Amino acid sequence: MRMRSAFAAGAVLWAGSFAGSGLGQSLPPEVKAKVEAKLAQVKGWSTDATIVTAVKEHNANPPAADKAMTNEQWSRLTVLDPYVRGFARNALGSYLKSKRDDQMVECFVSGADGTKVAFLSKTTYWSHGDKEKHRIPMSGKVYIGPIALDESTGQQLVQIGLPVLDAGKPIGSIVIGLAVSKL
After folding, report:
1. 21 within a domain of the structure (yes/no)
2. Which of 58, 70, 74, 77 would give a disulfide with 81, using CB separation of 3.0 to 4.6 Å?
3. What is the DSSP letter of 145?
4. Residue 130, in any domain of the structure
């Protein structure tokens, strides 16, 4: 989703604990504490067998249509396009829906190259491979973005990005958009 920064740009890294890290300065303390609490709740998603298996399968054998897709082509597809709907309705998309709570406005899982494996709803970009929200989790760390306005929903969000880990190695990313008003 296209996001405009509402506060200082930049990401906050989390490698297991924020205590004493000095990171997270762009988030107000009350929001930072709630985001950290949510991270503690979802950190197990990084090694969740359903998510790991789907990402491994995507990385090993992406469909030809996925390989050919570009961000420009993706932007022309509507949310009703059967190809787009397939990512929300596949096994992992259904699984993500079962894990969603009212704080999660968006959630998408990407393979190693940043292309989509599954999501709750259509993302602005097909590939997030060049975005910090994917690159940082691919280094094994957690990404926390600034508070930003989500243009499609009009809501203030904080995006968090987790690595998908297979035997401790990053193989993809999970990005969750949290509604600031519901934290």
Report:
1. no
2. 77
3. P
4. yes
As for how many domains the chain has, the answer is 1
CA distance 50 to 157: 26
- Which secondary structure element, helix H or strand E, spans residue 143, and what is its range? strand 142-144
Residue 157 covered by a domain: yes
Would you say 70 and 146 are in contact if contact means Cβ atoms under 8 Å apart? Answer: no
- Of the pLDDT bands very low, low, confident and very high (cuts 50, 70, 90), residue 13 is very low
CATH number at residue 134: 3.30.450.20
What global pTM score does this model have?
A: 0.85
Which pLDDT band, with edges at 50, 70 and 90, does 26 fall under?
Answer: confident
Whole-Å CA distances, 55 to 91, 114, 133, 144: 12, 11, 17, 21
- pLDDT one-digit tens code per residue, 49-59: 999 999 999 99
- Is residue 20 domain-resident? no
Nearest to residue 160, comparing CAs of 122, 117, 105, 78? 105
Q: Tell me the residue range of the domain where 137 lies.
A: 3-13+26-182
Please state the separation of Cα 122 from the chain's center in Å: 12
Neighbours of 146 (CB within 10 A): 20
Report the interhelical angle of 49-60 vs 91-99 (nearest 10°).
150
pLDDT at 151: 66
Arithmetic mean of pLDDT, 95-119: 97
